[in-house]
Amino acid sequence: MKQWNIPFCLWLNLLFSLSHTVFQITQWNECIKAIAKSCGECIQVGAKCGWCMDPGFLKQGEATSTRCDELESLRKRGCSSTKVENPQGSQWILKNKAVTNRIKGAENLRAEDITQIQPQKLTLSLRLGEPQSFNLKFKRAEDYPIDLYYLMDLSYSMKDDLENVKNLGTQLMLEMSKITSDFRIGFGSFVEKKLLNPCTGDQNCTSPFSYKNLLTLTSNGQEFNTLVGQQQIDGNLDSPEGGFDAIMQVAVCGEHIGWRNVTRLLVFSTDAGFHFAGDGKLGGIVLPNDGKCHLENNMYTMSHYYDHPSIAHLVQKLSDNNIQTIFAVTEEFQPVYMELKNLIPKSAVGILSANSSNVINLIIDAYNSLSSEVILENSKLPEGVTIMYQSRCKNGVTGEGEMGRKCSDISIGDDVSFTIRITAKQCPKMGKPETIKIKPLGFNEEVEITLNFICECDCHKDGIENSDICHNGNGTYECGACRCNEGRIGRQCECSTNEVTIEDLDKSCRKDRGTDICSNNGDCVCGTCECKKRENPEERYSGMFCECDNFNCDRSNNKLCGGHGHCECRWCICDANWTGSACDCSLDTTTCLASNKQICNGRGTCECGTCKCTNPKFQGPSCEICPTCPGVCTEHKECVQCRAFGTGEKKDTCERDCSYFNLIKVKDRDKLPQPGQAFPLMHCKERDANDCWFYYTYAVNKKSEKEVHVSALRALTSSPLWAGVVAGIVLIVLALLLIWKLLMIIHDRREFAKFEKEKMNAKWDTVREWR
């Protein structure tokens, strides 16, 4: 079996081309691919799609669904903009009270009269796929009221802490007065679910309890001190405490605690861990926490019945009730509560000293940290709706995505803003408006947004049910087309789905007996051809039998009809002043006018906007160039010399005066172009500034570009002066050769004589030795 070795780079090119094509198809076919049968279906496809209501818009063979197309495509197909149904989204701000500019010490305002977020209420009308954006402003108000509830672990290990908390009320009131003139404080305690009493007889403690609300929120700090001073520590069986039960009750029992719609702080003080959902099984409690208030006489009465709440349940209730939590814990358990803080938005952790002596500073620091950050959250979104945030914070800091929900390091009086973009991807099943809310975590204010969904066209309400236009009332005539009743088909609902037979298709949908049904470019519906759609919405089949198209015409420069016409039924219909099968031949003669206002200098004819020279000697856009005429070589001599050899009269102005031709250097004269090529050629021989011959050719190629080939090898001229110089040089060389030869002969003779003498001396020495 033959194997094909395809280079890896070719595979990459093919893969890129395929992915690019798929991407283009995906871009093209959003409206076309939907096959929308009505205007309402069309506008739900996406924001780019529109519906043409013009009754005469469709051409023969085009289905009703082709009324749905991209807006620009509808315009090109001849649908007037006044006939295009293209509803747009909109927004109305219903309540837009300005944020409060309040200064501490000014007139007292009720909490409900202070505004920190703007606007407060608006309505958005959403077209599917088209986002609606609005700006939300937040300003942290000065002297804003605060409610603080102190929830303390009264297990036995917190005995020394209780002593320091007894004076907390008045001291905290004093410190908080520096922040707000309207401060209230409350107190509650917790230990554990009541199962057994672990206290022994010699310990001054009461049996454990889950949660007690000891002091409803009050502005009387002394009352706080008195009541806390009456408390005793309690016992517990294990180290983790039942604090989550207490937090849940504090969050949901607003009337008992006395929460106002102001800043709500919950200080949770303990030196131990916590129980959570599932731990109740150890005591036989299996029912999950119901998240409801169960306080009777300020005691949590259902601790033996419901399990501890889960962390997620606790997060939800704290958020729903705008409560910010401060965990005041000992250093040993700080890592545990830091992990818990990461799960609870708008919470803080402070390290409590061994006896809680630093609790006031801890609360102040935690409050400043919490209040300097704003985090937006939204209620549950309807199905198919998305929301995106972009923040513009202090000092020009911006954020997007999840970071777009928050701003940090906000001081009192600082303005920050958010751009919120809401997009609908699908219409709600019930078709009714939906309401969502956006609020800053830990604050009682919120923005209420009503979402209306544009899922039907305006022209729908003017529809005529059982219209005579739709074949004796078999459909509703709306938006320029018939919406057929169930069981009816056809452009005018003229057929029943039970009446169409194969024989009908063969008889009515073939152009000739031997041709394909609908030319194999469409489907036969109710005896009429409905042409197929192309992936590219610009390309369409048409005609009674779908025999025509607008994309199979001749092309020029890879453009349909040369870009100077349009294709109708596979023939180019050219624009004015263009002709030819591909509309690539211009009838405009202005491009052939020479400087003397003659067409082609009177030496040719203008064909398709280009001069055709009748005299083969002439070339150029206007037949103005004669490369073989006398004087051409002399005309270009100086420029060729300066560009090729850097000599001659124009060597200093060469770049300015001589850049009108392309220069190609060849090795020698034999390499120059020879006559017989496609365009006329002139061979030139000129003398340069050094009295040498140089050779070149001059021509104008098919692109009307001047082209010069020059030989790099020059030749001497035959002038007497040069002949004498050459002869003198030759004589000098010959004389030097003769002198060198004479010196060599003298040198050789001397060397030979020396050799003979040494030879004789050697012979005499041999005779003497023999004797």
> Looking at the structure, what is the overall shape?
flat
The computed structural class is alpha+beta
| Distance N to C terminus | 101 Å
Radius of gyration: 49 Å
The tally of strands reads 43
Q: Estimate the helix proportion, in percent.
A: 10-25%
Average pLDDT: 83
Q: Enumerate how many helices there are, as a single number.
A: 15
Q: Which spans have pLDDT < 50 for at least 5 consecutive residues? A: 1-27
Structure write-up:
It is a single chain. With 771 residues, the chain is α+β, with helices and mostly antiparallel strands. It has 15 helices and 43 strands. β41 (692-700) and β42 form a beta hairpin. The longest helix is centred in the last third of the chain and has 51 residues, at 720-770. The chain starts with 7 loop residues before the first helix and ends with a helix. It is a single-pass type I membrane protein. This is Integrin beta. InterPro entries: EGF_extracell, EGF_integrin_1, EGF_integrin_2, Integrin_beta_N, Integrin_bsu, Integrin_bsu_cyt_dom, Integrin_bsu_tail, Integrin_bsu_tail_dom_sf. One of its GO terms (biological process) is muscle organ development.
